[in-house]
Design a protein that fits this description.
The protein is of the alpha/beta class. Helix content is about 40%, strand content about 15%.
């Protein structure tokens, strides 16, 4: 028991730069208190003392603001940061080393008794503040759920899910698009996939702007090479030529608000 407690305190010291001492973590971190009370409630639940388990869970909710059903399964070194408003359903499973921020819901979308209604988080998953993970699917090991995301389908290991409804940005063109948008000072994280015409138009704008930037760089390189190769080539570039990227991220942000 004390080894598990030491693990829980150490993982908070590792992941939270605001944590200073073990005594501070032990006495002032409601996420830790919620995990400890859940372990007690879970033991009662597995032993068949269902009312006592639910009462202990409600006591933990009253004291910490974190609601964890006593039937939920938590692994080792689970860190619930801040914790207020976190809800974990009965059939949810949280793997070792997971980090969950305030306002997160691991909820269900089915009313069938005894069914797997709540999500399973693999090892070392990070769930951002106010994210909603709804359904009996699996979030793969090392995945990240962005703040405010609404996840209703499985997330592959190591991927990142953002937006409402959540989309996966951990592979191929999506990752490149996010990187291009970040260079321009515009975040595409709020764009949803599917048939939304605004989302499709925004993706096209980002892709075209990134492509134009690349083509302009190639043209400038060719002009400079030609100028160096022949002194007889006049300076054909106007002095007011656009040499800096003109992508107006602020205007694009205003258009979609």
């Amino acid at each position: 028991m004390f080894d598990r407690l030491r693990e829980d305190i150490d993982c908070i010291l590792e992941r939270d730069p605001a944590a200073r001492t073990r005594f501070e973590v032990l006495t002032c971190y409601p996420g830790l208190h919620a995990v400890l009370l859940h372990r007690l409630a879970h033991r009662f639940w597995r032993a068949g003392f269902r009312w006592l388990a639910r009462f202990t869970s409600n006591l933990g909710r009253f004291l910490t603001g974190v609601e964890i059903h006593p039937g939920a399964t938590l692994g080792r070194r689970v860190f619930i940061d801040h914790g207020m408003g976190v809800v974990v359903g009965e059939t949810a499973e949280i793997g070792d080393g997971c980090t969950i921020y305030q306002g997160v819901t691991l909820g269900g979308t089915s009313l069938s008794r005894g069914a797997k209604r709540h999500p399973t988080l693999g090892r070392n998953v990070i769930v951002g503040a106010n994210a909603q993970v709804l359904g009996g699917f699996t979030v793969g090991e090392g995945a990240r759920i962005g703040s405010g995301a609404v996840v209703v389908k499985p997330v592959p290991p190591g991927a990142t899910a953002v937006g409402n409804p959540a989309r996966i940005v951990g592979a191929g063109s999506e990752t490149e698009r996010e990187a291009a948008a970040a260079r321009m000072g515009f975040s595409a994280y709020g764009i949803s996939q599917g048939d939304d015409p605004v989302a499709q138009a925004m993706k096209g704008l980002i892709d075209n702007a990134a492509s134009h930037e690349h083509q302009i760089a190639l043209l400038w390189a060719a002009i400079e090479k030609l100028s160096r190769a022949s002194a007889s080539v006049p300076d054909c570039v106007p002095c007011d030529a656009q040499k800096a990227e003109g992508f107006d991220a602020d205007r694009l942000e205003r258009l979609v608000k």
